[in-house]
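Sorry to interrupt, but I need a hand with the structure work. Could you write out one complete protein record for me, on any chain you like? Could you add the entry underneath, on a fresh line?
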Amino acid sequence: MRRGLLVVALVVLLPATLNVSSVNAGTTVQAVSARLETVVACLNNAGNVVARVKPSSCLFFKAGEPDVGDYYADMSGLRWTHWGAAAATATGTLHGNMDFQTTATLHFSRLIVCQARNEVSYTHMASNIPSIGPVSMALQSCP
């Protein structure tokens, strides 16, 4: 309980740093992202969508798909470059059916501002995996 109170106190003390409503009209998403936490949507073990900051592992999935099925990238050992920038890159191990594994590099882009959560979220992922081919998909925004 006290932990939640501490977070509320920080938000009250630092609104200019965390509050999207303090952003002037016309400010770019990139300028806003320098002041807000950057996240990406992942599915957790319970199948719930969660916002993750620079995850080391993640089940990325296509936005709007009721069943993950073929529209996912289950990644582990992620190493990130340019996290929080307009375009970020993650390299790690892609896991697939029947113990399939390969190294993959994923490219994330299309940041949007999530006003309700005071965050920015990557909404697009693309890759060209040699053994699979090109992959491009919209990610759920503002998880």
Residues 2-138 form one domain. The chain has one domain: 2-138.
